[in-house]
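PROTEIN DESIGN WORKSHEET
SECTION A - STRUCTURE
LENGTH: 605
TOKENS:
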């Protein structure tokens, strides 16, 4: 989108009244030449917060918070810089001036957002008026969702009919085309049909409150896909959006923490209980982009997971993503719930106050880091302590915040009973890579024809399989492992076209089997994907390792990555086949005939 003109930003304080702006949010009283109120940032009853109309400036004499109109809106409304400017301009009726040299906004963006809002209204009306609405209404009541909260989140209903949404927009060819682009309509063998059917609908909002996508919850807990999201698009990326962030900012007075949960219903249930500082990832693991957004919004991020093995595994992945991003002033915590409970069920069983008490005593990142590694080892032995040092050192080395890294080193020294100097010497050495490796980012710009990689080994059933890094591995093996990693993290990549192409690749039986399983259920879990290989120890062990490698890409980027690698493998295989044909030619004439065939194929348009 275009940049806001710097001249407009500079002149904004001259076009507004900061007193009017703040008074809409915080009642001010005239006191001498200033206006006073209790500070909204540190609390308290004394009127330490002063607003100067002449200087267009605010200042708290207690906590020291100060700044101009843009700064106040950023902090009070929990908005970023651009959002704050847009909010102020909107309240004072000022047309925003953009830099004329910047690229204009793609007209599709506004069209898609407008259409998404219309779809949200359609689903909301269906919840009120559809002949089949009783199922949705009964479900919402059973989950304790009030009319007020349903309205807050604009909950809706996708009826069982497979063409209700399409028929609602059938008079506009552009709308129908856009609905297909947004993944809300699908093309099938017997014509177009609605993607969402017989589900409670959750509009997904961006940080500005625009509807950009949808999630649907099945009424049957045994449904094959309990939750579905609409496809990624130019206005929606799962790795860059957090469900409920807009509502958290809107309905929370201060963002002193954010609770990160796993599902839409958890967010809605928290709001129902009065806990509004809560967001959810959209059916995907926490990404780097998610963390950067959270760190711009609050100083305390609390990850909330189920206490079972799956929950702790997801928490461990979140920790590994978090370590390199730690910085001064930001705290990360981990809250594990009792077995069999999720945020929705627990807050109803206890109370909002009791749940907030759990948030207060959540595990700091460092404690979870140490406890998790220790729990996997025989820590009371010398060998166990050695393995602990090896594994924890690799992770601590990913921390870029030097002060925190030093504190973690001191924590390790205390745990193993050695001096900080001794531990630091060990950390500075080249330690062996532990079996559980930190997350790896796959470079989308890599040149796969010449890219050097760690050898990922053959996918054959060798019980003595041991991964060993080498300097110059087989490129084909590395690329195959990358593709498997992408399918394990993005099952939606496994479509019929991918299956047809992978079938022609040599030694791709494991990848092909994964693709076939993923096509049955695009929301299949990693555990379910690799389960068929349990009896093949070598393959199963390697697949478990690849499950731990997360590319941290959006769905669109992952698809581009997958196709790029697939193209590269096909080119390499074709090249080998050509070389083999030439090698096996018995005469010079046969070799020339093969070369002429290659040249002819290249000339074809």
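SECTION B - SEQUENCE
RESIDUE ASSIGNMENT:
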């Amino acid at each position: 989108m275009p940049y806001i003109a710097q001249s407009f930003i500079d002149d904004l304080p001259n076009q507004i009244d900061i007193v009017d702006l703040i008074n809409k949010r915080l009642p001010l009283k005239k006191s001498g030449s200033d206006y006073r109120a209790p500070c909204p940032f540190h609390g308290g009853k004394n009127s330490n917060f002063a607003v100067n109309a002449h200087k267009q400036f605010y200042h708290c004499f207690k906590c020291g918070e100060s700044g101009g109109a843009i700064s106040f809106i950023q902090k009070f409304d929990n908005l970023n810089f651009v959002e704050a400017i847009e909010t102020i301009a909107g309240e004072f009726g000022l047309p925003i001036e953009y830099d004329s040299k910047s690229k204009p906004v793609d007209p599709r963006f506004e069209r898609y957002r407008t259409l998404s809002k219309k779809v949200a209204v359609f689903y909301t009306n269906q919840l009120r008026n559809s002949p089949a609405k009783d199922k949705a209404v009964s479900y919402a009541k059973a989950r304790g969702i009030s009319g007020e909260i349903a309205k807050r989140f604009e909950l809706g209903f996708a009826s069982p009919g497979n063409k209700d949404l399409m028929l609602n927009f059938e008079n506009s060819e552009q709308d129908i085309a856009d609905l297909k682009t947004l993944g809300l309509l699908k093309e099938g063998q017997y014509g177009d049909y609605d993607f969402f059917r017989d589900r409670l609908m959750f509009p997904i909002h961006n940080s500005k409150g625009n509807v950009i996508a949808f999630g649907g919850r099945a009424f049957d807990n045994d449904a094959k896909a309990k939750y579905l999201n609409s496809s990624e698009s130019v206005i929606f990326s799962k790795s860059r959006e957090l469900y409920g962030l807009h509502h958290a900012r809107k309905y929370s007075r201060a963002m002193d923490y954010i609770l990160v949960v796993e599902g839409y219903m958890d967010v809605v249930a928290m709001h129902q209980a009065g806990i509004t500082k809560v967001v959810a990832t959209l059916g995907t693991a926490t990404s780097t982009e998610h963390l950067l957004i959270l760190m711009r919004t609050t100083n305390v991020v609390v990850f909330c997971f189920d206490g079972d093995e799956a929950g702790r595994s997801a928490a461990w992945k979140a920790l590994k993503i978090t370590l390199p991003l730690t910085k001064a002033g930001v705290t990360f915590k981990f809250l594990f719930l009792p077995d069999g409970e999720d945020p929705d069920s627990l807050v109803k069983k206890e109370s909002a106050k009791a749940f907030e008490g759990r948030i207060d005593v959540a595990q700091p990142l460092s404690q979870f880091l140490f406890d998790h590694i220790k729990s996997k080892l025989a820590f009371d032995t010398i060998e166990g302590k050695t393995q602990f040092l090896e594994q924890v050192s690799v992770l601590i080395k990913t921390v870029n915040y030097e002060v925190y890294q030093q504190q973690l080193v001191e924590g390790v020294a205390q745990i193993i009973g050695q001096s900080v100097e001794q531990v630091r010497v060990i950390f500075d050495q080249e330690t062996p890579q532990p079996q559980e490796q930190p997350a790896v980012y796959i470079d989308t710009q890599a040149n796969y024809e010449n890219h050097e990689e760690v050898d990922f080994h053959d996918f054959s059933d060798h019980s003595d399989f041991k991964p060993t890094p080498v300097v110059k591995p087989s490129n084909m093996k590395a690329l195959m492992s990358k593709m498997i990693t992408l399918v394990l993290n993005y099952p939606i990549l496994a479509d019929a076209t991918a299956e047809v192409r992978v079938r022609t690749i040599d030694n791709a039986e494991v990848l092909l089997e994964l693709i076939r399983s993923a096509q049955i259920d695009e929301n299949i879990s990693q555990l379910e994907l690799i389960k068929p290989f349990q009896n093949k120890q070598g393959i199963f062990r390697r697949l478990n390792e690849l499950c731990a490698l997360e590319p941290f890409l959006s769905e669109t980027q992952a698809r581009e990555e997958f196709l790029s690698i697939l193209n590269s493998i096909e080119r390499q295989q074709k090249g080998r086949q050509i070389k083999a044909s030439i090698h096996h030619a018995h005469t010079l004439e046969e070799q020339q005939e093969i070369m002429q065939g290659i040249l002819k194929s290249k000339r074809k348009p």
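SECTION C - NOTES
Residues 425 and 555 are 42 Å apart (CA to CA).
The longest strand covers residues 211-218.
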